[in-house]
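Quality-control log, excerpt.
Job 1 of 2 completed; input and output follow.
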Amino acid sequence: MRYKPLLIFVILLSVFMAACDRKTTTLTISGSTTVLPVVSRAAEHFRSVEELRIIVNAGGSGVGINQLGEGKIDIAMASREITQSEISRYSGVEFVTHSIGKDAVVPVVSSEIYAAGVQALSFAQIGEIYQGKISNWLELGGPDREILVIDKEGSRGTRHVFMDIVMGDKNAKAPGADLVMGSNNEEQTAIVQSDAAIGMLSHAWLNQDINGLSIRMQDGSLIAPTIDNIVNGTFPIIRELYLITNGKPQGKGKAFIDFVLSPAGQKIVEQSDYVSIFY
């Protein structure tokens, strides 16, 4: 019985050391749902070769950047640039961005609308839809059907990039919007379930039920949202995808980012329907 206190001490010490070990071998990543597929697949592969616990959560670019600024995560995922207000808010944080690939933000419509003949729009037409000035597809050569306008939450990187290019203001209001969605997955589902929707999605989220519109340029030419046009830079709504750290990455965080930037990691980027940084 005289050894019981020592035994308790050893058990408690073991628990403490195990907790410390878990903390030092856990990498926390959060942010953009656009970057999420790449990071999730890379994390799955990385876990198989490294003794590392990787926790990946979505929430949007703004959420990831804020959590990094507050010291809650190790790496933020973002599909847009860091804003000056974010830099000012976290003046003690040294945001370091690591570009891991390229993507296009695409104006998308329900397959029924695309099949009915609306396959290209100008920025001016898209802007008038989101401003509520155009509310029926008939006005754009489509069926006599009210437009279901889907916007994204203000913190989403996809919205920042889309509104900045289409309307000249990343924080532009959208009084014509009927729904405000969060993740790409949520918006994709809403568009599939509608026969009259328009929205904005990452190129990787297009499928047979969601068609990306070509952009009608001022000279009348049409530019389709294809991988080739993303690679050659002609599609007009292109953005970089980022992993962001507080200062230069260290240890396991650096090893993970290095893996994503390696040929094997960039293959995952391409398998996720994005464009590798090697192009």
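Job 2 of 2 completed; input and output follow.
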Amino acid sequence: MSEQHSAPLVEPGTSTKLGVIIASTRPGRIGLPIGTWVAEAARAHGGFDVTVLDLAEIDLPLMDEPHHPRLRQYTKPHTFAWSEAVDAQDAFIFVMPEYNFSFTAPLKNAIDYLTQEWQYKPAALVSYGGVSGGLRAAQQFKQVLTTLNVMPIKESMGLPFAMNAIEDGVYRPSESVHAQAATMFTELQRWAGALQMLRATSVLS
């Protein structure tokens, strides 16, 4: 049996390590101000140690590793760095747009680089777009996450016409969006604690 790895577990009374992944890499994207707001709101909510993982800055090339990611036999510095960043998190929030009724190619590429690092962690999806708020992309993305044993929580958010809430490069959501986010953060923390046992079991197996 191949060796299993896991990030450190969430200890009682400690902060949940939260990775906010900004999925859009397009110049002029509104994902950056939305992701910045999500990270700031998570810190204000309390109990999170937040790391922003911006795929535009991380700039992963199309998959260029010779071995299947489940083996963790990486050869490229960018893969080692991405593995370390993802492995360190207890939970994720994906800030993601909808392109042509689906999620973006850079997001799928970033997911596919790794396998074990994602497992047994919860994820919330903050999708955005036009009238649908990116919900079609979010539904498709959930299938990818569950295949990796990631738990996408029900309390995710869809933000319709999110571009209308951006002023001078800053996302300024309504009070109802703030309330939805608070519920999402609380549930994400609960799931991060609940999945500790599964992650501990994967280390021992």
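Post-run check on job 2. Residues 1-8 have pLDDT under 50 and may be disordered.
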